[in-house]
Protein backbone atom coordinates (compact mmCIF):
# COMPACT_ATOMS: atom_id res chain seq x y z
CA UNK A 1 0.00 0.00 0.00
CA UNK A 2 1.14 3.51 -0.78
CA UNK A 3 1.52 5.00 2.70
CA UNK A 4 1.81 8.52 1.27
CA UNK A 5 -1.73 8.43 -0.16
CA UNK A 6 -4.93 8.31 1.84
CA UNK A 7 -7.97 9.36 -0.17
CA UNK A 8 -11.08 10.65 1.55
CA UNK A 9 -13.67 7.90 1.01
CA UNK A 10 -16.04 9.03 3.77
CA UNK A 11 -18.92 9.88 1.44
CA UNK A 12 -18.90 6.64 -0.55
CA UNK A 13 -22.20 4.77 -0.03
CA UNK A 14 -21.86 1.89 2.40
CA UNK A 15 -23.45 -0.36 -0.21
CA UNK A 16 -20.71 0.46 -2.71
CA UNK A 17 -18.06 -0.27 -0.11
CA UNK A 18 -19.70 -3.66 0.49
CA UNK A 19 -19.63 -4.40 -3.25
CA UNK A 20 -15.93 -3.55 -3.36
CA UNK A 21 -15.25 -5.75 -0.33
CA UNK A 22 -16.88 -8.69 -2.09
CA UNK A 23 -15.00 -7.97 -5.32
CA UNK A 24 -11.72 -8.05 -3.37
CA UNK A 25 -12.36 -11.54 -1.97
CA UNK A 26 -9.65 -14.01 -2.89
CA UNK A 27 -9.85 -17.76 -2.26
CA UNK A 28 -11.18 -18.44 1.28
CA UNK A 29 -11.36 -14.82 2.47
CA UNK A 30 -14.48 -13.92 4.42
CA UNK A 31 -16.44 -10.75 5.06
CA UNK A 32 -17.52 -9.64 8.51
CA UNK A 33 -21.25 -9.83 9.17
CA UNK A 34 -21.06 -6.18 10.28
CA UNK A 35 -20.96 -5.17 6.61
CA UNK A 36 -24.52 -6.40 6.20
CA UNK A 37 -26.12 -4.36 9.00
CA UNK A 38 -28.63 -1.74 7.82
CA UNK A 39 -27.86 -2.36 4.15
CA UNK A 40 -30.12 -0.74 1.57
CA UNK A 41 -30.43 -3.72 -0.75
CA UNK A 42 -32.24 -1.80 -3.45
CA UNK A 43 -29.31 0.62 -3.59
CA UNK A 44 -26.87 -2.30 -3.45
CA UNK A 45 -28.42 -3.84 -6.55
CA UNK A 46 -28.70 -0.45 -8.28
CA UNK A 47 -25.00 0.23 -7.72
CA UNK A 48 -23.99 -3.26 -8.87
CA UNK A 49 -25.88 -2.69 -12.12
CA UNK A 50 -24.70 0.89 -12.59
CA UNK A 51 -21.03 0.05 -12.13
CA UNK A 52 -21.43 -3.05 -14.34
CA UNK A 53 -19.95 -5.22 -11.60
CA UNK A 54 -22.83 -7.66 -11.17
CA UNK A 55 -21.32 -10.62 -13.11
CA UNK A 56 -18.07 -10.60 -11.12
CA UNK A 57 -20.00 -9.83 -7.94
CA UNK A 58 -22.36 -12.77 -8.43
CA UNK A 59 -19.51 -15.17 -9.23
CA UNK A 60 -17.92 -14.20 -5.89
CA UNK A 61 -21.14 -14.41 -3.86
CA UNK A 62 -22.04 -17.95 -4.97
CA UNK A 63 -18.70 -19.17 -3.59
CA UNK A 64 -19.09 -17.55 -0.18
CA UNK A 65 -21.51 -17.74 2.73
CA UNK A 66 -24.46 -15.91 1.20
CA UNK A 67 -27.24 -16.49 3.71
CA UNK A 68 -26.98 -12.81 4.66
CA UNK A 69 -28.15 -11.76 1.20
CA UNK A 70 -31.91 -11.41 0.62
CA UNK A 71 -33.17 -14.09 -1.76
CA UNK A 72 -34.61 -11.50 -4.15
CA UNK A 73 -31.16 -9.86 -4.46
CA UNK A 74 -29.52 -13.19 -5.26
CA UNK A 75 -32.25 -13.98 -7.78
CA UNK A 76 -31.81 -10.60 -9.48
CA UNK A 77 -28.04 -10.99 -9.65
CA UNK A 78 -28.45 -14.52 -11.03
CA UNK A 79 -30.85 -13.26 -13.71
CA UNK A 80 -28.53 -10.47 -14.84
CA UNK A 81 -25.53 -12.82 -14.72
CA UNK A 82 -27.22 -15.30 -17.07
CA UNK A 83 -28.44 -12.50 -19.35
CA UNK A 84 -24.92 -11.08 -19.59
CA UNK A 85 -23.48 -14.54 -20.38
CA UNK A 86 -25.83 -14.89 -23.36
CA UNK A 87 -24.93 -11.36 -24.47
CA UNK A 88 -21.21 -12.10 -24.32
CA UNK A 89 -21.63 -15.33 -26.28
CA UNK A 90 -23.56 -13.42 -28.94
CA UNK A 91 -20.85 -10.75 -29.11
CA UNK A 92 -18.17 -13.44 -29.43
CA UNK A 93 -19.90 -14.75 -32.53
CA UNK A 94 -20.34 -11.27 -33.97
CA UNK A 95 -16.74 -10.39 -33.18
CA UNK A 96 -15.45 -13.42 -35.07
CA UNK A 97 -17.73 -12.69 -38.03
CA UNK A 98 -16.61 -9.06 -38.24
CA UNK A 99 -12.95 -9.96 -37.85
CA UNK A 100 -13.17 -12.36 -40.78
CA UNK A 101 -15.17 -9.91 -42.88
CA UNK A 102 -12.71 -7.05 -42.31
CA UNK A 103 -9.58 -9.14 -42.77
CA UNK A 104 -10.87 -10.65 -46.02
CA UNK A 105 -11.42 -7.09 -47.26
CA UNK A 106 -7.92 -5.93 -46.26
CA UNK A 107 -9.02 -4.01 -43.16
CA UNK A 108 -7.01 -4.67 -39.99
CA UNK A 109 -9.35 -4.64 -36.96
CA UNK A 110 -8.15 -4.28 -33.37
CA UNK A 111 -10.84 -5.15 -30.82
CA UNK A 112 -10.48 -2.76 -27.90
CA UNK A 113 -12.69 -4.29 -25.20
CA UNK A 114 -15.57 -6.76 -25.18
CA UNK A 115 -15.28 -10.54 -24.78
CA UNK A 116 -11.55 -10.47 -25.58
CA UNK A 117 -10.93 -8.32 -22.50
CA UNK A 118 -13.12 -10.51 -20.28
CA UNK A 119 -11.21 -13.64 -21.33
CA UNK A 120 -7.80 -12.00 -20.95
CA UNK A 121 -8.44 -10.43 -17.53
CA UNK A 122 -10.90 -12.79 -15.85
CA UNK A 123 -10.41 -16.05 -17.74
CA UNK A 124 -14.16 -16.23 -18.29
CA UNK A 125 -16.24 -14.11 -20.65
CA UNK A 126 -19.22 -14.27 -18.29
CA UNK A 127 -17.46 -12.28 -15.54
CA UNK A 128 -17.39 -8.94 -17.36
CA UNK A 129 -20.15 -6.97 -19.02
CA UNK A 130 -20.05 -5.56 -22.52
CA UNK A 131 -22.78 -3.62 -24.27
CA UNK A 132 -21.12 -3.30 -27.67
CA UNK A 133 -18.03 -4.05 -29.73
CA UNK A 134 -15.32 -1.39 -30.04
CA UNK A 135 -13.14 -1.86 -33.11
CA UNK A 136 -10.14 0.29 -34.03
CA UNK A 137 -9.25 0.51 -37.74
CA UNK A 138 -7.12 2.89 -39.85
CA UNK A 139 -8.94 6.11 -40.67
CA UNK A 140 -8.45 5.50 -44.40
CA UNK A 141 -10.58 2.35 -44.15
CA UNK A 142 -13.64 4.01 -42.62
CA UNK A 143 -15.59 4.26 -45.88
CA UNK A 144 -14.92 0.64 -46.81
CA UNK A 145 -15.90 -0.52 -43.31
CA UNK A 146 -19.09 1.52 -43.53
CA UNK A 147 -20.08 -0.19 -46.79
CA UNK A 148 -19.42 -3.64 -45.34
CA UNK A 149 -21.45 -2.95 -42.19
CA UNK A 150 -24.37 -1.49 -44.15
CA UNK A 151 -24.38 -4.63 -46.32
CA UNK A 152 -24.67 -6.68 -43.11
CA UNK A 153 -27.75 -4.73 -42.07
CA UNK A 154 -26.12 -2.26 -39.68
CA UNK A 155 -27.40 1.30 -39.56
CA UNK A 156 -25.10 4.23 -38.85
CA UNK A 157 -26.08 6.68 -36.15
CA UNK A 158 -25.56 10.04 -37.86
CA UNK A 159 -25.28 12.01 -34.64
CA UNK A 160 -21.96 13.65 -35.53
CA UNK A 161 -22.40 17.10 -37.04
CA UNK A 162 -19.20 18.37 -38.58
CA UNK A 163 -17.75 21.46 -40.18
CA UNK A 164 -14.48 21.65 -42.11
CA UNK A 165 -13.76 17.97 -41.32
CA UNK A 166 -13.41 18.61 -37.60
CA UNK A 167 -14.92 15.15 -36.93
CA UNK A 168 -11.50 13.64 -37.52
CA UNK A 169 -10.14 15.05 -34.26
CA UNK A 170 -13.13 16.27 -32.24
CA UNK A 171 -14.55 12.73 -32.31
CA UNK A 172 -12.99 9.27 -32.32
CA UNK A 173 -15.64 6.76 -33.36
CA UNK A 174 -18.81 6.18 -35.38
CA UNK A 175 -21.70 4.15 -33.95
CA UNK A 176 -23.60 1.42 -35.79
CA UNK A 177 -26.67 -0.51 -34.68
CA UNK A 178 -28.23 -3.68 -36.07
CA UNK A 179 -32.02 -3.31 -35.70
CA UNK A 180 -32.71 -7.06 -35.89
CA UNK A 181 -29.82 -8.48 -33.86
CA UNK A 182 -29.78 -5.56 -31.44
CA UNK A 183 -25.97 -5.39 -31.72
CA UNK A 184 -24.16 -2.08 -31.28
CA UNK A 185 -20.73 -1.46 -32.78
CA UNK A 186 -18.36 1.47 -32.43
CA UNK A 187 -15.82 1.86 -35.23
CA UNK A 188 -12.85 3.85 -33.90
CA UNK A 189 -10.17 5.66 -35.84
CA UNK A 190 -8.61 7.00 -32.62
CA UNK A 191 -8.44 5.62 -29.09
CA UNK A 192 -9.57 8.95 -27.63
CA UNK A 193 -10.64 12.31 -29.04
CA UNK A 194 -8.16 15.17 -29.36
CA UNK A 195 -6.21 16.83 -27.82
CA UNK A 196 -4.93 13.59 -26.30
CA UNK A 197 -1.73 12.15 -27.80
CA UNK A 198 -1.62 8.45 -28.60
CA UNK A 199 0.24 5.77 -30.61
CA UNK A 200 -0.46 5.42 -34.30
CA UNK A 201 -2.55 2.53 -35.58
CA UNK A 202 0.51 0.94 -37.21
CA UNK A 203 2.35 0.96 -33.87
CA UNK A 204 -0.59 -0.68 -32.13
CA UNK A 205 -1.00 -3.26 -34.89
CA UNK A 206 2.70 -4.15 -34.72
CA UNK A 207 2.38 -4.94 -31.00
CA UNK A 208 -0.98 -6.74 -31.28
CA UNK A 209 -1.93 -10.07 -29.68
CA UNK A 210 -4.16 -12.85 -31.01
CA UNK A 211 -7.08 -14.00 -28.88
CA UNK A 212 -7.77 -17.67 -28.31
CA UNK A 213 -11.53 -17.42 -27.76
CA UNK A 214 -12.48 -17.57 -31.45
CA UNK A 215 -11.56 -20.02 -34.18
CA UNK A 216 -10.93 -17.26 -36.73
CA UNK A 217 -8.11 -14.94 -35.60
CA UNK A 218 -9.22 -11.89 -33.63
CA UNK A 219 -6.65 -9.36 -32.52
CA UNK A 220 -6.34 -6.97 -29.59
CA UNK A 221 -3.71 -4.65 -28.22
CA UNK A 222 -0.51 -5.58 -26.47
CA UNK A 223 -0.58 -5.33 -22.66
CA UNK A 224 1.22 -1.99 -22.37
CA UNK A 225 -0.91 -0.40 -25.11
CA UNK A 226 -4.02 -1.82 -23.47
CA UNK A 227 -3.05 -0.31 -20.11
CA UNK A 228 -2.55 3.07 -21.78
CA UNK A 229 -5.96 2.84 -23.46
CA UNK A 230 -7.80 1.70 -20.33
CA UNK A 231 -6.42 4.43 -18.07
CA UNK A 232 -7.02 7.23 -20.58
CA UNK A 233 -10.51 5.92 -21.34
CA UNK A 234 -11.44 5.47 -17.67
CA UNK A 235 -10.06 8.87 -16.69
CA UNK A 236 -11.95 10.58 -19.51
CA UNK A 237 -15.16 9.15 -18.07
CA UNK A 238 -14.26 10.04 -14.49
CA UNK A 239 -14.11 6.33 -13.57
CA UNK A 240 -17.86 6.78 -13.19
CA UNK A 241 -18.31 3.03 -13.70
CA UNK A 242 -16.00 1.09 -11.43
CA UNK A 243 -15.86 -1.85 -13.86
CA UNK A 244 -13.11 0.15 -15.61
CA UNK A 245 -11.15 0.37 -12.38
CA UNK A 246 -11.51 -3.36 -11.74
CA UNK A 247 -9.97 -3.83 -15.20
CA UNK A 248 -6.96 -1.85 -13.97
CA UNK A 249 -6.82 -4.04 -10.86
CA UNK A 250 -6.71 -7.08 -13.14
CA UNK A 251 -4.22 -5.84 -15.74
CA UNK A 252 -1.56 -4.82 -13.21
CA UNK A 253 -1.45 -8.48 -12.14
CA UNK A 254 -0.11 -9.25 -15.61
CA UNK A 255 3.58 -9.27 -16.44
CA UNK A 256 3.71 -5.73 -17.78
CA UNK A 257 6.93 -4.13 -18.95
CA UNK A 258 6.78 -1.18 -16.58
CA UNK A 259 9.96 0.40 -17.89
CA UNK A 260 8.53 0.55 -21.42
CA UNK A 261 5.12 1.55 -20.07
CA UNK A 262 6.51 4.46 -18.06
CA UNK A 263 8.28 5.70 -21.20
CA UNK A 264 5.11 5.33 -23.24
CA UNK A 265 2.99 7.26 -20.73
CA UNK A 266 5.63 9.98 -20.58
CA UNK A 267 5.73 10.18 -24.38
CA UNK A 268 1.99 10.67 -24.56
CA UNK A 269 1.84 13.01 -21.54
CA UNK A 270 -0.25 10.62 -19.47
CA UNK A 271 1.92 9.71 -16.48
CA UNK A 272 -0.39 11.56 -14.11
CA UNK A 273 -3.38 9.66 -15.52
CA UNK A 274 -1.61 6.34 -15.05
CA UNK A 275 -0.83 7.40 -11.49
CA UNK A 276 -4.44 8.40 -10.87
CA UNK A 277 -5.67 4.96 -11.94
CA UNK A 278 -3.15 3.10 -9.78
CA UNK A 279 -3.95 5.19 -6.70
CA UNK A 280 -7.69 4.66 -7.16
CA UNK A 281 -7.20 0.94 -7.69
CA UNK A 282 -4.97 0.63 -4.64
CA UNK A 283 -7.29 2.64 -2.41
CA UNK A 284 -10.57 1.06 -3.51
CA UNK A 285 -9.49 -2.47 -4.44
CA UNK A 286 -6.27 -2.94 -2.43
CA UNK A 287 -4.26 -3.42 -5.61
CA UNK A 288 -0.64 -4.23 -4.81
CA UNK A 289 1.63 -1.56 -6.28
CA UNK A 290 5.14 -2.83 -6.94
CA UNK A 291 8.14 -0.51 -6.92
CA UNK A 292 8.19 -0.24 -10.73
CA UNK A 293 4.79 1.50 -10.54
CA UNK A 294 5.87 4.04 -7.93
CA UNK A 295 7.18 6.70 -10.38
CA UNK A 296 3.63 7.12 -11.70
CA UNK A 297 2.10 7.74 -8.27
CA UNK A 298 4.65 10.26 -7.00
CA UNK A 299 3.80 13.90 -6.54
CA UNK A 300 0.61 15.72 -5.71
CA UNK A 301 -1.04 15.69 -9.12
CA UNK A 302 -1.93 11.95 -9.39
CA UNK A 303 -3.34 12.02 -5.85
CA UNK A 304 -5.31 15.20 -6.52
CA UNK A 305 -6.81 13.71 -9.70
CA UNK A 306 -7.63 10.49 -7.84
CA UNK A 307 -9.45 12.40 -5.12
CA UNK A 308 -11.36 14.38 -7.74
CA UNK A 309 -12.53 11.11 -9.32
CA UNK A 310 -14.09 9.97 -6.02
CA UNK A 311 -16.80 12.55 -6.77
CA UNK A 312 -18.24 10.17 -9.39
CA UNK A 313 -18.33 7.20 -7.00
CA UNK A 314 -20.11 9.16 -4.29
CA UNK A 315 -23.18 9.41 -6.52
CA UNK A 316 -24.64 7.59 -9.53
CA UNK A 317 -23.35 9.46 -12.58
CA UNK A 318 -24.49 8.63 -16.11
CA UNK A 319 -22.45 10.89 -18.36
CA UNK A 320 -24.05 9.57 -21.55
CA UNK A 321 -27.65 9.82 -20.39
CA UNK A 322 -29.24 13.19 -21.05
CA UNK A 323 -29.89 15.39 -19.31
CA UNK A 324 -26.71 15.30 -17.21
CA UNK A 325 -27.35 17.39 -14.06
CA UNK A 326 -25.82 20.84 -14.42
CA UNK A 327 -23.59 20.51 -11.36
CA UNK A 328 -22.23 17.16 -12.61
CA UNK A 329 -21.71 18.49 -16.15
CA UNK A 330 -19.83 21.51 -14.82
CA UNK A 331 -17.68 19.39 -12.51
CA UNK A 332 -16.89 16.93 -15.29
CA UNK A 333 -15.90 19.69 -17.70
CA UNK A 334 -13.44 21.09 -15.16
CA UNK A 335 -12.11 17.63 -14.32
CA UNK A 336 -11.47 16.85 -17.98
CA UNK A 337 -9.48 20.07 -18.27
CA UNK A 338 -7.46 19.19 -15.17
CA UNK A 339 -6.52 15.85 -16.77
CA UNK A 340 -4.83 17.58 -19.71
CA UNK A 341 -1.14 18.31 -19.88
CA UNK A 342 -0.02 21.91 -20.45
CA UNK A 343 0.44 21.23 -24.17
CA UNK A 344 -2.97 19.56 -24.40
CA UNK A 345 -4.62 22.51 -22.66
CA UNK A 346 -2.98 24.86 -25.15
CA UNK A 347 -4.20 22.76 -28.10
CA UNK A 348 -7.66 22.59 -26.57
CA UNK A 349 -7.83 26.38 -26.28
CA UNK A 350 -6.78 26.66 -29.92
CA UNK A 351 -9.47 24.15 -30.90
CA UNK A 352 -12.11 26.44 -29.40
CA UNK A 353 -11.19 28.97 -32.08
CA UNK A 354 -11.89 26.40 -34.80
CA UNK A 355 -15.44 26.72 -36.20
CA UNK A 356 -18.15 24.44 -34.79
CA UNK A 357 -21.19 23.12 -36.60
CA UNK A 358 -23.27 25.50 -34.47
CA UNK A 359 -21.62 28.37 -36.36
CA UNK A 360 -23.04 27.02 -39.62
CA UNK A 361 -26.46 26.70 -37.98
CA UNK A 362 -26.26 30.31 -36.76
CA UNK A 363 -25.18 31.68 -40.14
CA UNK A 364 -25.51 29.24 -43.08
CA UNK A 365 -22.92 29.88 -45.79
CA UNK A 366 -22.13 28.10 -49.07
CA UNK A 367 -19.46 25.40 -48.72
CA UNK A 368 -16.90 27.43 -50.66
CA UNK A 369 -17.23 30.24 -48.10
CA UNK A 370 -16.86 28.06 -44.98
CA UNK A 371 -13.37 29.48 -44.41
CA UNK A 372 -15.11 32.70 -43.32
CA UNK A 373 -16.27 30.94 -40.16
CA UNK A 374 -12.75 31.36 -38.72
CA UNK A 375 -12.87 35.21 -38.50
CA UNK A 376 -16.64 35.14 -37.87
CA UNK A 377 -16.54 32.66 -34.97
CA UNK A 378 -16.11 35.21 -32.12
CA UNK A 379 -18.97 37.31 -33.52
CA UNK A 380 -21.26 34.30 -33.92
CA UNK A 381 -20.41 33.09 -30.40
CA UNK A 382 -21.32 36.48 -28.90
CA UNK A 383 -24.52 36.53 -30.97
CA UNK A 384 -25.62 33.11 -29.64
CA UNK A 385 -24.85 34.05 -26.05
CA UNK A 386 -26.72 37.36 -26.34
CA UNK A 387 -29.71 35.69 -27.96
CA UNK A 388 -29.78 32.95 -25.33
CA UNK A 389 -29.77 35.49 -22.51
CA UNK A 390 -32.51 37.48 -24.23
CA UNK A 391 -34.68 34.37 -24.57
CA UNK A 392 -34.08 33.51 -20.93
UniProtKB/TrEMBL annotation:
Q: What is the lineage of its organism?
A: Bacteria, Bacillati, Bacillota, Bacilli, Bacillales
SUPFAM superfamilies assigned: Nucleotidyltransferase
Q: Which organism is it from?
A: Bacillus aerolatus
Q: What is this protein called?
A: Renal dipeptidase
Amino acid sequence: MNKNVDLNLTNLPKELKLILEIIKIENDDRISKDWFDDTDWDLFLQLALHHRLYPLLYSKIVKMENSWFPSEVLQSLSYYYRKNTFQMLHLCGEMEKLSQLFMENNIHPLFLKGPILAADFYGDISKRTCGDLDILIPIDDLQKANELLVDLGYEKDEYIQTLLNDWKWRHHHFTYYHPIQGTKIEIHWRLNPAPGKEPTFNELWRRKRKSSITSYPTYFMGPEDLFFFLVTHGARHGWSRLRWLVDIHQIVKKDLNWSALNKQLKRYQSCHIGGQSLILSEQLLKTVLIKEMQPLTRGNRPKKLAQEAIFYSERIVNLHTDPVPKDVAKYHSLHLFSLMSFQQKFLYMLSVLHPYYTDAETLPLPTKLHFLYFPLRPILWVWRKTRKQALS
